[in-house]
Amino acid sequence: MAKDEFLKVIDLHKNFHKLEVLKGITTSFSRNEVVSVIGPSGGGKSTFLRCLNLLEEPSSGQVIFDGVDICDKNQDINLHRQKMGMVFQQFNLFNNANVLHNLIDAPMRIKKKPQAQAEEMAMKLLREVGLADRADAWPYQLSGGQKQRIAIVRALMMEPEVMLFDEPTSALDPEMIGEVLDVMKRLAEDGMTMIVVTHEMRFAREVSSRTIFLDGGRIEEDKPSHELFDHPESPRLVTFLNKVL
Question: Could you tell me if 107 and 120 are in contact, meaning their C-beta atoms sit under 8 angstroms apart?
C-alpha cells in the first residue's frame, strides 16, 4: 500500500441473501483526501460506505485500514471504528440528553477523557459550527440542520482519522442543507479525510478532490471530480448527470 493510502478496498462483495449489492469494488483513499460517492438510488453507495467500518459485514474482500485488514475476525473492530467518524442521514442524537451531554458521552465512556477536558473540546467544536449557544438545548429544540451539525461534532469528538458521511443532507429541508455543507467544506479545508455519499452534485464537483460513480454495485468511473463531471466517459454516467445537473 502506498504511503498515503491509509484505507484500501480490495475486491469487495456484499450479498443480502440472493441479492448481490456490491460486485467486486477495488479502490483506495489517501490521507487529507475528500472523495464523493455518487450514483442512482439502489446502486450500492450506502452499503459500500457502511462496509468501510463493518456496519455491514462484507461477504468477501478486504478493507485495509492503517495497514490492518479489519475484515479479519481476529481484529477488534471497535478499536478501528474509533478512528472512523460516521454521520448518518438521520441524526441519532440521544433525546434524553442535552447537546453537551450528547457530545461528551462517548469520549468519556470509551476514551476515558476527563469530563472537564471533554466539555472544553465540545465547546470549542460547537463554536466552530456556530452552535455554542445551544450547548444546553435538548434535541427536540433544534432544527434539522442544527441536529446534523451536532451529529458532525459528535463524530469529531472521537478525533477520527477519517469521516464517513452517508447522505448527510438528504433528510433536511432545502434551506438547512447549506449550513451543513458549509461545515463539511470547512472540514475539507482543514485537511480532514472525508468519504461522502451524496446527492449534492455541487459539493462533489467543487469540494471533493475525487468522485466515484457507483452504479449496479460496481465502480463505473473513479477520477478527479472536475474531470468526471466535465468529461464523463461511461454512458451510464452521462445519462445520470443529464438527469441530476
Answer: no
